[in-house]
Each structure stands twice: as structure tokens, then as C-alpha cells.
Design goal:
It is built from six helices and five strands, in the order H-H-E-H-E-H-E-H-E-H-E. It is of the alpha/beta class and 185 residues long. It has one domain (26-170): Rossmann fold (3-Layer(aba) Sandwich). The chain has a five-stranded parallel β-sheet with strand order 1-2-3-4-5. Helix 2 (17-27) runs antiparallel to helix 6.
């Protein structure tokens, strides 16, 4: 069954323009990587053929902030890097989203020093937190899928001035035990 058979006899199809726009946004999320440490290696692995981030429309890593709409901060961020990171965020196009990948980007990790930022959410609006040290590529893919679901459902919260508020989603690492029931009960 092709698209031609699904279209009514009249030859046209109607839908809401917002759904088409959200579908296009969800299917073409262009990430801007900001990877500094071991989380950056996992970020690179996510884009490889084994995990294939291209399935979700996020294979085009843009190193120009004006062409990206998703910033992935992976690894520790120092106080000297933070003004640069903030400037990159401000140069990104609206609507824009931020994923904090790993313990170092989310909380400072094991680097409890004056030079390492103890969580980028003090300076940037973070939408999705991906836990782990370093998190597996599957967790980052789940974070991208969480942002895509929010885009698709058009649940982008705005404040009174028209600026987008952060989503503040926490991904939970799957438990190691799986309950499987086989057969009829």
C-alpha cells in the first residue's frame, strides 16, 4: 500500500500545519557537540554505524552554532570554558535544546574543584540529563528520543516573554533485572 492509495479520491490531504512543522523539527535535529572528555568518546560512538544516530535524524553534527538546534554538552566544563559555551548557546537558532551528558556535565562529577563547573544547569537551561560516567550510547539515544517526543507533541513550555523554558527531564538508567513471563497464565 503506497501513499497514493492512502490519499482520498479527491487527491489531497489535510493536516495541521503545526504537526507538519513539528514532524520536520523532530526528524531533523542537528546537534552541536561540546565534548571535552571521556563522554566525548561515547558521543562519537553514538554517531558511528554500530549505534547509528542517523536513524533519528540527528546524524548531521554541526560545528557552527547557527546551524544547530541541539547542544550536547559531554564531559567536564571548566570556568574558563563557560563563557564560550554560553556564547555558543546564544548563537544557536530557536527553538534550541540542551542535553547534559554524563556526571561531569550534570554535577561536576568527581572533579569537586574550583576550576570545574558543578553542573552546567547553573549557566544554561538544560532540557535532558543523561546519567552515567560515562553514559552508554544507548542512553544518549534515549535522551535524543526524549527531546524528539517533546518536539512532536508540541509541549515546548514558554514563559511570559516568549522565551522557551528548559524541560528538566531526568533519564533513569535501566535496572539490571528484567521480569520476563513466558507462557499463558
Amino acid at each position: 500500500m503506497g501513499l497514493e492509495e492512502a490519499i482520498p479520491v479527491d487527491g489531497y490531504m489535510t493536516t495541521q500545519l503545526s504537526r507538519v512543522i513539528n514532524w520536520a523539527r523532530r526528524s531533523s535535529v542537528w546537534p552541536m557537540p561540546f565534548a571535552t572528555a571521556c563522554c566525548g568518546i561515547e558521543l562519537m560512538a553514538t554517531a558511528s554505524s554500530r549505534y547509528d544516530l542517523a536513524r533519528f535524524g540527528a546524524e548531521v553534527f554541526r560545528f557552527s552554532p547557527r546551524q544547530a538546534d541541539l547542544m550536547i554538552v559531554a564531559g567536564r566544563v571548566t570556568t574558563k570554558m563557560m563563557p564560550v559555551l554560553q556564547r555558543i548557546y546564544l548563537q544557536m537558532t530557536e527553538p534550541k535544546w540542551v542535553i547534559s551528558m554524563g556526571a561531569c556535565a550534570s554535577t561536576g562529577g568527581l572533579f569537586d574543584t574550583y576550576a570545574v563547573v558543578q553542573g552546567i544547569d547553573e549557566f544554561l537551561p538544560v532540557d535532558v540529563y543523561v546519567p552515567g560516567c560515562p553514559p552508554r550510547p544507548e542512553m544518549l539515544i534515549e535522551g535524543v528520543m526524549a527531546i524528539q517526543q517533546i518536539i512532536d507533541e508540541d509541549k515546548i513550555p514558554y514563559d511570559g516573554e516568549g522565551k522557551r523554558k528548559p524541560l528538566l527531564l531526568d533519564l533513569v538508567a535501566p535496572s539490571s533485572t528484567v521480569d520476563v513471563t513466558i507462557g499463558a497464565s
